[in-house]
Amino acid sequence: MNASPSFQHDSGPPPKNQTASRNPAETHPAKTGRSLRPHLRADLTASLVVFLVALPLCVGIAVASGAPPELGLITGIVGGLVTGLLPGSSLQVSGPAAGLTVLVYEAVREYGLATLGVIVLAAGLIQVTLGALRLGRWFRAISVAVVEGMLAGIGLVIIAGQLYSMADRQAPASGLEKIIALPGTLVGAAGSAQALASLAVGAGVIVVMACWRFLPSKVRVVPGALAAVLLAIAATALLDLPIDRIQVTGLLDAISLLGAEDLGRLADVGVMGTVVAFTLIASAESLFSAAAVDRLHTGPGTDYDKELMAQGAGNTVCGLLGALPLTAVIVRSATNVYAGAKTKASRVWHGVWLLLFTALLPGALGVIPIAALAGVLVYSGWKLLPIRQLAPLWRDHRGEALILLVTAVAIVTVSMFEGVLIGIALSICKTAWETSHLHVSVSDADRGSVRVALTGNATFLRLPKMLEALEALPKNRPIELDLSGLRHLDHACRTALTSWAERHNHNDVAPVRISATA
Fold this sequence. Notes:
6 strands, two-stranded antiparallel ribbon, transmembrane helix, membrane, Transcription Regulator spoIIAA, 518 residues, 20 helices
């Protein structure tokens, strides 16, 4: 498929314009004899920053997915302790991702939490298999426009769904219903004091996160998402606001180990379709994230096959524990790089901090307002929308922009899986159309004959144009058909040319001569 300009959705500072060549010694200090201690300190510091960013996102994504908040933390822990230890990408961080929220919510609503673990397990095993077969690099062949359209559609559905949570209302099931019913829901919420308080808390979180990057650097040491949630907790407590908080059951209570009988759900065609969707979207998002992270540092690049196996191993463990699926997450990964991480130890330590927090301070989750997490996800959903990139993309690559828009609209109006398939199909059709250029040149030749030269690619997509040009030729003059300029002649065009030549020779005295064959 044709490549289009890549995008990055990242709430951190802009990528550094580094041109230095990658030197393995820079990220492997032991090879140069230097002490590991400075790197240990840098990795520990970076891991704490990533932990503070990941904590509210893990909880918020789980709640938005219709799952207990502890499951999001379990996925974050697995992303650090399992995926983080495995080879692939050295600095990108994995955990529950906003990009899978809609799909997870639909799976939980349709099949239940018990089946979610089976779906995640199967997707993880497929990822491991694909990586072992060295197919990880082929996920990069998915059109960037499709991935961007997928993220944009997800972002729209997340924003619409979480606005209902901010308004203390139940969201409709489908993405289109969420958007259509949203204005009436927000107007109706104006008559409820509880709904207004909830909306105010969520809106405050969005404002804090949006303005956080304008504050002094010393203040921005604390991640914006964490600061916004802490301020929301303080405001809710001080003003004694009547809004809902997260319901906490405990980490061990949330774990639901799979049994042999659960695997029987894979015989369901719908479940297997969801498995395919999980595999496709999680793999593409992880490997696109890896490509983005590689541009942010000068260390060793990602081994895409090993990274896909690492993601699959993490999802296999998450599935066995009944947790949410994991992917590599660009926001956490970029935060890890900008915080000064040098080795994979930083992402492992971030998993340790998540584990210690949930084991020692589980009650701390119970004071978090649901509206605050909804505000975090509304802001995250907004960051998924390629608003700044859309205008230049439309100007320079209009076909790619149309694929992006159609994919996003299809995800909102139909479903995640069908929307992605529609986007991929459009991308394939666009590429086939653009690569099947055919030029028909007609000129006078010697002895009163007409010379027709075909150059380019003669495929069924250009068959009408070719036949229209041939049928317009004079029927009383000899015709010399030159096919030497064709790079490709498919079966449909070859058959059509043969039939046209036979009809012309049969009905007219002027013969058709083919001077060369493709």
